Amino acid sequence: MKNSKHALVALLAVLAAGTASAQSMSNQGYYGEVGYTASHIKNNNNGFAIAPKLARLTVGKELEKNLAVEGTYAFTASKDSGVVGGVKYTGKESFYGAYLKPKLEVARDVEVFARIGALHTKYEDEAGVLSKTKMSYGIGVQTQFTKDVYGQVDYMSYYKQDGMTAKGFTISVGTRF
């Protein structure tokens, strides 16, 4: 709960700073987002599954009207626990990576997009640490609230290997600067 409050404070600070900077500068094609990710980590080999919540930060640059490049970082805002063989494991996750983001406007102020890129994921619990770089991909929709502030929802596959998967929905708010 304490980490969730920190994530909310960070979100509000970024929005306030982004709105102030957006009003003082012309749009240079850069943007930043703060999001809350409901992740789901599952190991099909032993039935272990947890759902930690993450705060996700993204910075991007519009390359052209229908393509952007992004860097992202996420950290655990709220851990989760699961039981395997009578043993309780409490897990947390973090990741960072880069994406290409092709997008298409489907209605006024509404875009659909895809993301594809490489992501370094780190998962930790009492049994150890898993740290790998893998391909990551997803889809989403974005809508403009004002000229420089927008919201989006996306579903991403963050990790998949050897029966272990990490996926999640994210709700985020962003600003252009």
Structure description:
With 177 residues, the chain is mainly beta. The chain has a single domain, classed as Porin. The chain contains one helix and ten strands. It has one helix spanning 2-24, and strands at 30-43, 48-50, 53-64, 67-78, 80-84, 87-107, 110-125, 128-144, 149-161, 164-176. It has an eight-stranded antiparallel barrel. The longest helix has 23 residues, at 2-24. It is elongated. The chain starts with a helix and ends with a strand.
Task: Work out the count of structural domains.
Answer: 1
Task: State mean pLDDT (0 to 100 scale).
Answer: 88
In percent terms, what proportion of residues is strand? over 45%
The count of DSSP E runs of length 2 or more, i.e. the number of strands, is 10
Task: Predict the CATH topology.
Answer: Porin
Shape designation: elongated
Radius of gyration: 17 Å
Q: How do the strands of the widest beta sheet line up side by side? A: 1-3-4-6-7-8-9-10
Indicate the topology.
Layout: H1 2-24, E1 30-43, E2 48-50, E3 53-64, E4 67-78, E5 80-84, E6 87-107, E7 110-125, E8 128-144, E9 149-161, E10 164-176
Antiparallel strand pairs: 1-2, 1-3, 1-10, 3-4, 4-6, 5-6, 6-7, 7-8, 8-9, 9-10
Descriptive labels:
177 residues, eight-stranded antiparallel beta barrel, 1 helix, 10 strands, 71% strand, elongated
Quick recap:
This protein is mainly beta and 177 residues long. It is built from one helix and ten strands.
